[in-house]
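[step 3/7] fold_predict: job queued, chain A
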Amino acid sequence: RVRIGHARIMSLSAVVQPVRIVSLRATAVAALRRGSKPTRVRAATRPTVPIAMASSTLAENPLASWSFGRKPSGEAPDLPKWSSITPEHVKPAIMAAVDKVNAEIDAIETSFTESTPEKWSDLMDPLERLSEELSRPWGVVSHLKGVRDSEALRAAYDECQPAVVTASLRVGQSRPVYDALVALTKNEAAWTSLTDAQKRAVECEVRDAQLSGVALDGAQKDRYNEIAKELSELSTKFSNNVLDATKAFAHTCFDASEVDGLPDSALEQAAQTAKTKGGHENATAADGPWMFTLDAPSYMAVRSHAKNRALREKVYRAYLARASEHFAPFVDDADAKAKFSKNGAGDNAPLIERILALREEKASLLGYDTFAEVSMAKKMATLDRAESLLEDIRAKARPAAERELEEIRAFAANAGAPEATSGLAQWDVGFWSERLREAKYELKEEDLRPYFQLPAVIDGMFELAGELFGIKVEAADGEVEVWHPDVRFFRVIDVATNQPRAYFYLDPYTRPSEKRGGAWMDDVVGRSSTMAPTTGAVRLPCAHMVCNGTPPVGDKPSLMTHNEVTTLFHEFGHALQHMLTTESCGPVAGINQVDWDAVELPSQFMENWCYDKKVLRKIGKHFETNEPLPDDLYEKLVASKNFGSGTRYLRQCHFAMTDLELHARYKPGAGTDAIFATERKIAEKTMIMPSIDEDRFLCGFGHIFAGGYSAGDYSYLW
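[step 4/7] structure written:
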């Protein structure tokens, strides 16, 4: 399982739990979430000043002094000072933003009570400016927590989170604001004067206020707010536990026989990990030692290529046990063992039970029968239509998946695999699937890597975007601060006007010590006329794209798998939707307020180009000779495109159907065992091979327990 791509959909009342658009690329037979590997550049050591020692003034605080893209600053755009922001800046900046939001919502309510606004500029413009005061700096902190995590930053984040949630609820539940919004929809003259975009913005704000509990009073409102705060805290804990478990695992091989079958690229990365994480300064790809982790490039290399069956089994079991009571045997540190034991601080199972119970209670307070209905209120689909689609796909995918597994078993038996006699285990299927693919299409993943060097892939991707959308992407490194030396910065130019249209960051490589797994897109600022700089008519959008791709090793550039190339194109699709919008109504510009089950359209549109011959010849250039991708490799790549597709679709149906079952019919209160029993029941229809007893995939399913995909994972197939 590979989860990629994301962007925060911001509503004026949606700061409580920033969520991200996450999109799907599945690999044959494998179940994983994209991870990370050691980077070639270490992050600079940052001061560990106690949070209480804040900057002397907010003006000197690089987080508090950011003006959200409104400040003219010459050629360079007004963007966060990423490298200057340290954990001690967080609390004073965020608490100042909270105080400002509370004061401004008080003033707005007084104004609206005295005189109901009838113009867009009197109603929505003040609300948009209000939302930016907290969502933007908190978005910066949330982003840094994902890409530059540290104990000090976690402490600052956790300390501020309750105040952020409280302020967000205060805005989202403002009755005078809600009444003014509803009044505008009923004022025929005022309503007909609005553009379609403005009408959409108002309608979304009315809906989001209702889902934020604006209609609740007294004890019900108090309870709703308590639930919102606790859910926010649980989401953070869930994510932290998954990251900590992924970081805690490492397995070192010292004998070359233990790493037989692994390609040179995997051995190079494993030796580099042994240096940076294991302290083996003399480790080499040829002689070892080699350290393997649960970061996706390392994990997938072992699953797909290691002849060492015991190694495959260990990493498979460890991956599925992350953040659960079964993870303790896979770590050596005593504190980690205690943390990842039953009901330990790192066990996500009790958190899942609590999250489901709170979501059910929240739905009841809002007048819904299930949390799935709450989720569907912001989507195109209904529960019935989503489940109908999933069952239709499942019914068609299962026979194909059964045939694929039988073909893999037969191939392993013909190859004389000892495990074929006793029956392939789950950790064998990925290995023999890859061998079958290689034999069937005469194509190895490593044959493609030399042609997919990141610099050439980026250049070709930008050239394609230019042909499709009339833009030119220029490197603008050094013009603004970045959060890590590997991060690139780019300017998007409109060819017709030769003027800037947007900006974006690209963070391409894994950094397991501080960066969470996955690949995602998010907005830094959005296009908005209301938030325009004093010298311009509109604020230009800015996005960041974060991947966990293979980093450079030695003098070699990053040599990517084709799947990593597809991931990059996918994220660029999300970013393009945000950056190329021509809508200047901020609340609905770019990625804002796109129906959740529609967000994958631009990303998957861009993925398709990764099999286009013309595009592949542009992005596929050998890193040593600069020769384009040969025709025979292209033909083999296209021929193998649908290999294992039955298994992939069936696996995605498992994720989505489990998600909907837990949020539509499961009744919390029976304990954590009941949760996993529910998943196993779904698996009877969605898995060909039974899961292992200690499978705790749900304990790492951050998309529905720590993100925005609860009762929405079906969006990948919608």
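[step 5/7] annotate
Confidence is low (pLDDT under 50) at residues 1-55.
The first strand starts at residue 3 and ends at 4.
exit 0
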